[in-house]
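FORM 7B - TANDEM STRUCTURE REPORT

SECTION 1: FIRST PROTEIN
SEQUENCE AND TOKENS:
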Amino acid sequence: MPMSTMSVINLLNRLKVKEVGAVKEQVVDFGFNEGLALVKASMKSTTVLTDIFIEKKELCFGP
């Protein structure tokens, strides 16, 4: 279910987003193993999605 406009505005304010034009939607497909790796990485970093999808870091996708 899509978020309401007010919910999106509140979320952007809470995340201290200053330039809304810089925000972009990104759809990502991944399997069970990648999902598990994301959960593990979330225990090591507070910026997991940024680390993995924006900065392309390998937090725990290794062997």
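SECTION 2: SECOND PROTEIN
SEQUENCE AND TOKENS:
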Amino acid sequence: MLTSVCLSACSLWQGDSGAGSGKTGKSKKIAQVGASILYADDLQGVIHPGMLAKDSARLAREYIDAWVKREVVLEEARNQKKIDKDEIKQKVKKFKDNLLRYVLEERHVNNNLDTLVKDSEVKAYYEANKGNFVLKQHIIKGILIKIPLASTGRDSSSSLKVGKLLMSTNANRKKTLRDFCVKSAEFYHIEDSTWVGFDDLINNTPFNGVNDKAALLKQSKFQYSRKQDKKYVYYLKVRDFKLVNQETPYEFAKPHIVELILQKRKVELIQKMEEDILKKARKSKKIKIY
């Protein structure tokens, strides 16, 4: 049996002793599929005070339709004789058991995990596993600047300024370049002492369309590269780079190594917890094997 009632959103929580808030303590019925009933209270997280009537009505209708669709499918599934109900119960029990175990492990890890990883530990891991740290992408230490063409039009000398700053070795170069970028650039990355993924950096720029990225990197290390599209001009200057399949520099590998060390600690914590629980159970004679 399917009943679907279409009501205005503003009337959803109006009292209806015959359908809701009387003896049953429930709010007004909104829809019903077989024995499953959707009440107005169930929509309280969907519709909020102050919403326009048309918006609240639309959201209510979408929620009701989705609920009806879900319940109709579930009703059909419940009535299927070919579905093995015992198998479903076993799967539900297994899911519940796994969820309980996960909650226990998560709580134990959150309460006991030492998240402080010393540099000496990271370096030792890196040195012992250098062969595993091979680059899967080009990485660079470099600068990328994106400037609106409208900005360069107002200052015809801006291109010359950027070029000089990119090639300069002056100690104040970075500060001057930052000041310029804050004023004129839409995007800039000028932290050229930090390794970053090259593809990530040049994504959505004309440099991404260059076929020979290795040649671009080599060229941009000795002389800045400049490209332009309809709205922007882009500058690339490479201080250093590493290519795919080369050894990953320690600085670039460090965050990943920290994650690996923490993951190893989590596994060890869980294993220790399991051993302690097992010892406790044996000591209390809870375990019986027949």
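SECTION 3: OBSERVATIONS ON SECOND PROTEIN
The longest helix spans residues 250-283.
The two ends are 51 Å apart (CA to CA).

SECTION 4: SIGNATURE
Preparer initials: ____
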